[in-house]
Amino acid sequence: MAGTAAGRTDADRGHGDAGHVLRTATADDLGGARAVMLDTVYRDLRSGYVPRWHADIIDPGTAYLRPERCTLLVVEHRGEIVATGAVRDRGPQAPPNPPWVAERFPSGTTAQLCRIYVRPEHRRHGLARQLVRELGQFAVRAGGYEALYLHTDPAVPGAEPFWRSLAQEVCDERTLPGGGQGIVHFELPMPGAVAASGGAARVTPAG
Prior knowledge:
α5 links the parallel β4 and β5. By secondary structure, this protein is an alpha+beta fold. It has one domain (10-202): Gcn5-related N-acetyltransferase (GNAT) (Aminopeptidase), CATH 3.40.630. The longest helix is centred in the middle third of the chain and has 16 residues, at 127-142. It has helices at 30-44, 51-58, 60-65, 99-104, 127-142, 159-164, and strands at 20-24, 71-77, 80-88, 110-118, 147-152, 168-172, 184-188, 201-202. Helix content is 28%, strand content 23%. The termini are far apart.
């Protein structure tokens, strides 16, 4: 399973805040992870649930746990999954994305960060930043990845400023003729040194 073949999260050595534990997902976590993802899609995304875009949410085990170079991380709080984050081993496809974006981030050498969702009542604890950090380190341990890519819907509250604080804009589709899909494409720097470890992690609060 992903996360075990390529090593557990570096946060597994971490220390704690108010009971949030970040760890690699298991099959037992898939129902809780799916609930977080679906709730976010229906609540925050303008598109709502679109089967061709969100098939991984229905079957996250096949999408993230089985492939060696993919992973799904979860944050647990008092027995409930309250946040998710994943790496998939393919880049953006064209269409619907601009062809030059797809060419810049080819599948196989691109680690795409996705499904970084935090339930509203658990935001402002640094969980998303912690997830991004651990997903980037997983990509380095997995090997073969040359770029970290993601896209976001700026209509999601707080999403655009969050990603601008961490990543470099590659393409803002709102500036394209017709507005494109209205999403923003980003590239994150690949992490440097990575330490592998085992166990569970407690999340350090961040801003």
